[in-house]
Protein 1
Amino acid sequence: MLESTTLPGPIARKDMTWIPSGTFWMGSEDFYPEERPVHRVTVDGFWMDTHPVTVAQFRRFVKDTGHVTTAERQPAAEDYPDAAPELLKPGSMVFTPPPTAVPLDDYRRWWQYVPHADWRHPEGPGSNVGGRERHPVTHVSYLDALAYARWAGKDLPTEAEWERAARGGLDRKPYVWGDEPEPGGRPAANVWQGRFPWENLATDGFERTSPVKKFRPNGFGLFDVAGKVWEWTRDHYTASHADSGRELAPTSSCCVPRNPVAPPPDADEAFARRVVKGGSHLCAPNYCLRYRPAARQGHTEDASTGHIGFRCIVRDTGEAGS
């Protein structure tokens, strides 16, 4: 179980939303195998950032601490024994759409490792974040996100905490807004419209990320928990919930796991894999229908891309507004 973090005062709750304690059904049987089995989980109440950490917020952190992100550091050859020498440079993964339709069996057709791409240069050298101060920060690894959270006196959520918050009280619904992928025939989140990865219709108004709070919040008042950017969680990734080390007892109210977190794997890896949640602006029904609260993927702690960000929480045993 993770320790609580006590907020120093009301000012620290700015731009945070109270998520009440509760029991919910975690996972889904209707989409991808890693989301199974559905099981009941209880989490205590906590405060969560109302929206993903923005470029402007991350810039303040870097200015205050001098933090150098994973993407800005020289990779160690011993950590990447199979990497081509020309790729052992500071950089990050950048989405580069092909000009026409391509088979969807190899992500390298649309993802490229771009030297010197980082949070300040999201598309690589020559790009910048001017005008994107209120967009979610991207090209941040789990290690960068955790460093920011500690600087802010916060933490990263567990997978269960994140999913409880993202559902907004709509238990067992496929989307954070309910049952329909596009309620009223309009995009409800910053996601991909068209045929991925080459045809981006951008009917949501954005080809890449959008500023935070451009779409309606969920039932708890959280913005952008679907689409926009994947978000890091504390849990180590497993192929299914049944492999996560949790005791799954979906029918027994006396045995519902409380505040669970998946433990580290037994294997000794250079970089552990962590769960990311929420999908991104690159999620499309024809390829990655993962802008849903149950959806989950795994990324190594050092991974940074143009579609992964994060938000923080504070585990506070007090009542909302106290």
Note: The CA atoms of residues 174 and 180 lie 8 Å apart.
Protein 2
Amino acid sequence: MVELVCADPAIYRIRLPFANVGAGETNCHVLHDHGQWLIVDAGAAGLGNARRLQTALRELGVDFGACQVMLTHGHFDHAGVLPALLSASVPLHLSPQAVAAREAVRLRRTQEGFRREMRDMGASSEDARGYGACNAETAVFPAGRFAYRPVADGDEISVGRCRFRVMETPGHTPDHLCFYEPDRGILFAGDHVLPATTPAVDAHPDGVDGLGLYLCHMRRVRDLPVRLALFGHGDPERDRATLAARIDAIVARKRSRVQAVLAFLCERKGATGQEVARCALAGLSDASWRATRPMARYYFMLEALVVLRHLCATGRVERLATDGRAALFRPR
């Protein structure tokens, strides 16, 4: 259950299950150096994770009086179990956006806005409600519940001999952070880079081009002299060239999806967002689309929204508002 992934400093991995579009595992990493402890991400609530994690931390002998927590982002599979783990005295380092954007009232407004966008993409009212439920991946952070320590790009977090540099890497989520230790080349990458899957990009609030931000910050991480990359999901990577190749592959995949949408719009001379999701991204007939599980359709709709925002932001596509019907997107 507890796996040593680095000897100096001592870093352990604890894998915790989650269930969403499928079943998977999230990595909780625990670092111990010179009497100080660091926990990076935690895991999903439920599924016995609180018991699993508490047992593992007891086995490691974690001293919460000399412990800090770093959160890469606030998705449920990285932060959901925190209320069962942390007392209010343990410092929790995270993006200021993670606290503000995940307060219950703001979360409701964000979800209402997402449902409206799904309707504007061409989804029915029923489907838009379902996609909104699928989009509720964020953990609620109550005001005053944790010892919040908001951090920004360039800040340092000291743990024993280690000095972790905060890197703002929005894209997968608006609040995503990576943590990099330059002297030892250790990178806690969260879900910014994953070794086996291409990370999704969230629908950022206020129409922000999240995909553009993601691609920009992928280049930034690629240039780091990393000797050990630790991910939110999957096994560590110790070879810098392999990590760079993986980043290149993710970027190429994202760009290929953008090109597929643009080619579809050029051929059709315009389409709704749902048509983009169904035809250009999922490659499904209308009947097959309706037979597809709502969670899978949601991910195609989310990707279509994110790609269309990016194409509009970069001037290659324009969005045409229609009276009472779904918006149309066409190439400029």
Note: Residues 240-268 form the longest helix (29 residues).
Protein 3
Amino acid sequence: MFGLLVRFTCKDADAATAFDELVARTGECVRAHEPGTVVYAVHRVDGRPLERVFYELYRDEAAFEEHEAKDYVRFFLAERDRYLSATQVERLDLVSGKGVSSEGSSSCG
């Protein structure tokens, strides 16, 4: 599994509303067309109304590359900077988790 943790900071409240609309449209397409995208979750940050956190988990790097090549993702990437003052991206390598397939068997009995 391959993942991303992305933190976005919007410019202001109006930009946050527009960004959320862009995110919603993009998310609909991800859910409909990307079987290799295991999780594509977007969160508002409690107490920080201009911040959004994306948690993305892909079956593998090939699924991530397929995601990045989609027209609706390319549109999102081209449009997002209109609404943002900062972006921080961290690449993740899954070690363990619930709700995702992993190698090996359980030792919990």
Note: The helical segments are 13-33, 61-69, 71-79.
